[in-house]
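Q: I'm writing up a methods section and want to include an example of the input and output format. Could you take the sequence below and give the corresponding predicted structure tokens, formatted cleanly so I can copy it straight into the document?
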Amino acid sequence: MSVSFKQYTKYNQKLWKFQCYLGKTEFGEEVRTTRSRFQTKKEAQQTYRQLQLDFDKNKLKMNGNITFKELYEEFIEQYRLKVKPSTIMITRRAIEDHALEYFGNKMLKDISVRFCTQVNRPWIGDGYKQAYYFRRAVAQILQYGVQQELILENPMRKTEPIKRQEIDEHLVATETMTVYTPKELAIFLESCKKHGNMKIETYFRVLAYTGARKSEILALEWNDINFDSNKLTIRKTLAEVESSPDTKVTKVASQSAKTNAGKRTISIDKETMILLQEWKIRQQFEFNVLGFKTTNKHQLVFPNKENKFCRPGQANDWYDMIATKYKLKRITIHEFRKKHVSLCAMADMNLEHIMYRVGHKDSKMTRQVYNYFYPEREERSADQFAQFIEKEKYLF
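A: Here is the clean output for your methods example:
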């Protein structure tokens, strides 16, 4: 018998105890235990049943009898302790919005390489730009299962990788990228000025003339701008992070740049600096009227009406309003950044200087945008070489 109950007397009080054998661990070790000081036999029996249930449940887990969703919930709790809050939201969206519908109720022991391969296909087929990340996130969670000895191997890692660079290259090659010409950009910025909101006017001037990301600019503080040297330091970005682990409700927070390349100090043209100085004075006046102090050393350059962080999507709303009001050609906010790269290339700026200015970690993406807009530059190089040979052929 795996359990025996016995009544005993202690301090003139009749109590119950039991001795039991629960089973063997995954390492073959026998698990026996004794519990005592129960007022009734029924109470002792209930405790024994719960112990056996807990032990059996753990044994089931060790044999892969735990759902992917249960493993994910365990994984995300420890993952929160290691990564940035924005990374948690990205992982949650990838898993909860795209992976759980396939993997959620599936037992770990039933997740095969073939099943993972079949799931990867619709992610790619449906045109998700983040398909490579969906695969990676699932693999991360299954690898956690391997580390916890719930499964022996990671089936997702055995599938064909979805390479991010291939997706990026495909998009650059097939997407129609649209940017403003210098004339169209001037018209847009003039329209921002006509609109009469200096914050919006200044924001888009900085966006167009620095090549910074929209959320990097929204995270700027006045102490990031040096009006003496005409320099702007970018070290932070805004991101949506968890408001609560129990919901998908988010809040806006500032966090450090993802890579060292994202932290940079760049030069600003004089006209943009003058506009920033004028906006600083105007901001102080407007907030003083509303009763907000702007003397804090972390005062934001582009806050919302409550002098707090704007939503990262706020810039899109501003752009839609201006483009609609003045019936302008439409591009995406990110294409302002591509425009900056293309014009830097057109101005014959050094590739490394362009990379540093826009915060690219490596040259791949910079070159892709560069070559997309100016493929004829390579042809011009061939002509220049031929002209050099023709000119110099009699000198040697």
